[in-house]
Amino acid sequence: MAKGMFVDTTICTGCKACQVACKQWNGLSAEPAHFGKRPGVPYPVADNFTGDSYDNTGTLSATDWRHVRFIEQIDESRREKRWLFSSDSCKHCSDAGCLNACPTKAIVRTDLGNVVVQQETCIGCKFCIPSCPYGVISFSEETGTAHKCTLCNDRIHNGLGTACAKACPTGSIRFGELADLKKRADARLAQLKGKGEQARIYGYEEADGLNVFYLFADRPKVYGQPEDPVVPQRRLVLCSLVTILTALGVGAAALVSFRERLNGRDEEENHES
């Protein structure tokens, strides 16, 4: 039975307990890009001030497998405002572009539906990175391989939930069987819509369905998610089809032109004779 997570962003408080739990359980180091050297200072100094509210992570990376987004919405009069939060990670797509692109089969889907990079097989070719429509997977200069969330592969194959879901104090992140999670999501969506709120589920249709899906209180792009994500391999098939049809059209036009020239030459020869 496929496992996944339902992230109800409407009850996320942005506490970042999920980020800490992910780092701790998976033994992820600090993001090297967030630290720099200062003259006369013997240790690295944090310089990851994004200027984007309390977001000090900025984006997902080889060492940041979870990212809590802080979204501030303030109207023009600056009288009405609200904060939105969203704990983002790999979506473990049903049609995973990273898995499709991997030439060594280092990226695999397990029997529980999660998508994992096998570090011992990855050759660091980076083909998977542009193949992810969500910008999730990243290359590590330290290991020379690609990294991303594994859905706590070791935990879930030993009967445990994901570390982030375990640490979430509000129940915003739920781990479980997909069918049960979707029932919970649908019920929550109906509850919010009953109150007149503009909520929506993100992940039922995208990339053939996401094993980690979300309840948003605004459009996906507000949360930094693509409105209509396209798995690159699907675009490749469409582009190839267009190219083939174009080539056939050009060939047919050339053949017609060639026959017209032959017919014209025959008429000239008959006229002269």
Q: Look at the helices and sheets and give the structural class.
A: alpha+beta
Radius of gyration: 26 Å
Query: Helix content range of the residues, please?
Result: 25-40%
Spatially, the strands of the biggest sheet line up as 10-1-12-11
Q: Looking at the chains present, what oligomeric state does this protein adopt?
A: single chain
Topology, element by element:
Layout: E1 3-8, H1 17-26, E2 35-36, E3 45-46, E4 67-74, E5 81-88, H2 97-101, E6 107-109, E7 115-117, H3 128-131, E8 138-140, E9 145-147, H4 153-156, H5 163-167, E10 173-177, H6 178-194, E11 200-202, E12 212-216, H7 232-272
Parallel strand pairs: 1-12
Antiparallel strand pairs: 1-10, 2-3, 4-5, 6-7, 8-9, 11-12
Describe this structure in words.
This protein has 273 residues and is of the alpha+beta class. It contains 7 helices and 12 strands. The protein has helices spanning 17-26, 97-101, 128-131, 153-156, 163-167, 178-194, 232-272; strands at residues 3-8, 35-36, 45-46, 67-74, 81-88, 107-109, 115-117, 138-140, 145-147, 173-177, 200-202, 212-216. A hairpin with a 4-residue loop joins strand 8 (138-140) and strand 9 (145-147).
